[in-house]
Each structure stands twice: as C-alpha cells, then as structure tokens.
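Technical annex, item 7. During the second reporting period the consortium partners agreed on a shared format for inverse folding records so that results from different sites could be compared directly. Each record opens with the tokenized structure and is followed by the designed sequence. A conforming record, contributed by the partner at site C, is shown below for reference.
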C-alpha cells in the first residue's frame, strides 16, 4: 500500500479555495495524486479530499501553512497517514456470518487495519476468534467494555450484529468511529426485527444500511446502503437469508471507506468520495 497523506477540508463555499490549497502544496514541493470535491449548494458548504504522495520521512509537509489557511477561511482541516493501520474491535452477539466475512477479508489484506480483538456479550463467538488467531473477550457490562477498548487502544468499533445498545459515554468517546450494520434500508424499519416488519408490510425490496452510531437509535450518519428485490413468495426466513448477503457487502464497503479516509461527516450526513 502506498504511503500517502490524506487531507480533508470543509469550509463555506467561496472563490479560490482549490487554488489556495494547491498553491501551498506546490510551493512546498508536494505532489498531488488526486483531488475530489463536493459543493453543497443548499448550505453553501465546500468539501474536498486531497491525496498527497509521501516519498520519504524527510519530505516537508506544510501542515502549519494549511492550518493557517483553514483558520483564514474559517474551515476545518484534518490530516491522515494512509499507511497507518488503526486498531479495530469487532463486536458481535451470536451471529457469526458478518464477522467471518470481515475477518476473511482482513486475512486477505483487503482491510488495511489491525483487528486485535473480538468482543461479545456471549461466549459462542470465541471459536471464531480462535480460528482467526485474535483475542476474544466476553463482556458482562459497559464498564468492562470501556476497559477492554482502552486496554487494546481501539480506534474504530464495528458492530457486526451486536444486539446491545452502545452507552452514551462510549458513543461520545468514539464519535464517528463506531460503524453499525442495520438490516433494513433506513430510515425504514428501525429497531428490532426489521425483516419481520418488512414481511408484514409486504415490501418488494429489502436492504441494509451501514451507519455511524449516535445517541439516537439507528439515526446516525449513513455511510452505505443497498437493496435486493423480494416477492410475495418469500418467507421471513428467505428474506433474512437474502438480506444477509446485502448486509455483508454493505458493511465491508462502509468499513473500507472509513479505513481509506474517504468519508467526511457533517451535520449527520456523509460525503463519500470515490
């Protein structure tokens, strides 16, 4: 994986933003690999993601100049090292399918991170952790969960069918760093048993939504969604099976986008760059 520096920048839309950013980078001898931008015309907000080639540790990067520009434009700027692998914890309850899928992709280097631990409120998933040679921890309360996350220096939490409410103190501690997979096309069918809700309504599509967790259940910023067609012939169990395939794909895409710093969150919405 190439070692690049990623820049995220948000400010009010105005003339000359790209010119000012690229001039600073050019004058300091940095090579821009890609630029992606978006303008929210309704709210007059400008978003940009810039990827910079990092050739050596001695390379000068104009962080102070960019911070000064951000201050001048009353914006918000963030910097990321694409080569830094963050620590990820997977939380699950009993269902192993979405966890297996993530760990298989992790083992094949499709997810650029470190997954040191699998956490659950039940012991059934310990065999999954053992199979992939990662630590397993059964937690009985939220204090124990916080302690485990801190001890493992976790940066990102993935809720892979974790059937527990994440407490507000953890949500605040990991702001926009908790990804949940919900088995419906939100905002439809929030809460428990969405497939049963969909079956009763006789819907013709079911879906999955990966979103960041907030203190409001299933209302966090949406990262990725997808759907699949169903018919009146499909039973609840058939709908669940079809939905699982969508869930796995959606969760993987969301986690990968987060790890590759392709997401900017603003006012409970996400900007997802290619």
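Designed sequence (site C submission):
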């Amino acid at each position: 994986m190439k070692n690049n520096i990623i820049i995220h920048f948000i400010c009010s839309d105005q003339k000359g933003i790209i010119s000012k950013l690229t001039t600073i980078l050019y004058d300091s001898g940095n090579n821009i690999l890609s630029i992606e931008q978006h303008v929210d015309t309704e709210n007059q907000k400008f978003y940009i993601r810039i990827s910079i080639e990092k050739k050596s540790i001695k390379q000068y990067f104009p962080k102070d100049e960019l911070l000064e520009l951000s201050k001048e434009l009353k914006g918000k700027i963030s910097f990321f090292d694409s080569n830094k692998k963050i620590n990820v914890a997977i939380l699950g309850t009993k269902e192993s399918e979405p966890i297996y899928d993530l760990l298989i992709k992790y083992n094949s280097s499709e997810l650029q991170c470190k997954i040191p631990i699998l956490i659950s409120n039940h012991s059934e998933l310990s065999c999954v952790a053992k199979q992939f040679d990662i630590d397993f921890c059964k937690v009985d309360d939220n204090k124990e969960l916080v302690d485990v996350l801190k001890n493992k220096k976790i940066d990102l939490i993935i809720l892979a069918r974790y059937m527990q409410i994440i407490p507000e103190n953890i949500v605040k501690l990991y702001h926009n760093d908790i990804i949940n997979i919900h088995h419906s096309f939100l905002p439809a069918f929030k809460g428990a048993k969405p497939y049963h809700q969909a079956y009763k309504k006789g819907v013709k599509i079911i879906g999955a939504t990966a979103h960041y967790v907030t203190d409001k259940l299933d209302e966090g910023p949406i990262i990725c969604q997808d759907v699949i067609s169903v018919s009146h012939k499909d039973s609840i169990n058939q709908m669940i099976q079809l939905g699982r395939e969508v869930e796995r794909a959606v969760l993987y895409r969301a986690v990968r986008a987060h790890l590759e710093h392709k997401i900017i969150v603003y006012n409970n919405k996400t900007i997802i760059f290619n």
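The domain at 4-81 is CATH 3.30.70.260 (Alpha-Beta Plaits). The chain has two domains: 4-81, 87-272. All partners now use this format for quarterly exchanges.
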